[in-house]
Amino acid sequence: MKKISWYYKKLIFVLKKRTDIDKKIIKYNSLNDLFNYFGTDKGTNVKNPYNKNSNEIFGHGFAEFYEKHFEKFKNEKINLLEIGTSYGASLAAFMHYFPNANIFGLDRNFKYKYKSKRIFFFYCNTTDENDLNNFKKK
User: Fold this and answer.
1) CB distance 91 to 75 below 8 Å
2) Which of 13, 50, 69, 88 lies in disulfide reach of 112, CB 3.0 to 4.6 Å?
3) pLDDT score of 73
């Protein structure tokens, strides 16, 4: 039954309409602005995603750390992997921050909601040895 559920989720994932962010022109001043724009908890000014009726500001503020360490790679042709993507807001922000990078996302859910020629999403439950072995083959 678990296998059927997985195939059903994967089918829905493949058929799901996604927001195309390749054509989206976003003016921003920082990585934090991009995190806030896409609504990832890595930003500083994001409403609580777990309670849609709340005005509570929720955010870890990781952007300052990331920008400090990633800025030197900003225009390089790099591959960036994020493990644990949820809806893909961070992937979308990184795609806009790194204009020449390929962005890879790895997660065990099928919630990812964006599409781009430079973003590649992979399903993988990192606690499942079979999933990890299958991912290694890709």
Assistant:
1) no
2) 88
3) 95
